[in-house]
Every structure is written in structure tokens, then in C-alpha cells.
Amino acid sequence: MFCESCGASIPDGQSFCSNCGAAAPVQPEVQAAPQPAPQPVQPVQQYAQPAPQPVQPVQQYAPPVQQVQPVYVQPVVAVPAQPRKSSGMAIAGLIMGIFALVLCWFPGVNWILGLLGLIFSIIGIAKKNGGAKGAAIAGLILTILGVVLSVVVFGAILGTSLNQYVEQAESAASAIAETTY
Fold first, then answer.
1. Contact 94, 118 (CB under 8 A)
2. What domain range is 135 assigned to?
3. Residue 157 within any structural domain of the chain
4. Which of the residue ranges 27-36, 39-48, 136-145 has the most confident prediction, judged by mean pLDDT?
5. Number of domains in the chain
6. Is 137 exposed, middle or buried (0-12, 13-18, 19+ CB in 10 A)?
7. Around Cβ 171, how many Cβ atoms within 10 Å?
């Protein structure tokens, strides 16, 4: 027979479960079939079953109750968003730098663009809260490259023109010198 509470095996004749202490289920009486005439049987020594012990209730372990400390929550203060400062000077410096580099073939125009590009880029870098310092630095670099290329192109054009002028002047001077002697 098995305990209905815990499922442990209960020996016949025991009225309580030795595992959980619950009362053993009652078995219905089974009518025995008539038996043939008894045969002489040798006496068998039976051991007396121990008397059932009173079952003590099982104490459940309950963890000690801890008092919960109150949690401090930082108050949230809504701060209005600051309007983002524009980075117009940095962008203007970048654009002037691009134009200075592209138009390096025109010295007069390029020097004006270079000067404006330098001014706008330096102001864009110097701004404390400017959001486009990278654009201002790129504008400064492009402006410097554009002005340097413009000076090189202007020097090449001027050098070529001067050489032609000097050659023409020398040939004219030699022609005059030959005619006078």
C-alpha cells in the first residue's frame, strides 16, 4: 500500500506513513475464499511490530522577515533644452575653402576667397559651443591649400610672362644696338 500524501510505501498493518506521518489509507476487507481443511502447521515465530509513534508536526522553515529599507529616488528636474548654436561660420569657412581650392587658377578671385575662408574658419574653430569644429578645420586646410596653389600658379604665369618680356626686350635692345653701330 502507498501513502496518498507523499507516495511512499507503507507496510501492511501500519496505520501511519513513516515518511510524512499521514494516516494510512483504509483497505477494503477482501472476503477470503473457503479454505480447505487446515493442515497441521508448524508454529512460526512472529515478531511484534513496534507500536506506532505519535507523529510530530513537521515544522516548515520560514526565512526571517527582513525589513525593506525605503529606496531614495532622485527627483527628476526637467531642464529645457538649450537651442543648439549654429555652426554657420565653420560651414562658411569650409565652403570658401572648397571654392579657393577649385578656383586656384584665378589669382585675384582666389585671394579674396582665401581671405574670407581663413576668417570664417578661424572664427568657427574659436567658437566655444560650435558644433562643427571638424568642418572649420577642414575649411582652414582647404583654404590654405587653395591659396598656396594660387601663389604657385600666379608665380608660374608671372615667371613665364617675365621671361617672354625679357627675351623680347633683349632682342629689341640687340636690334637697336646693331643699327646704331
1. no
2. 88-176
3. yes
4. 136-145
5. 1
6. middle
7. 10
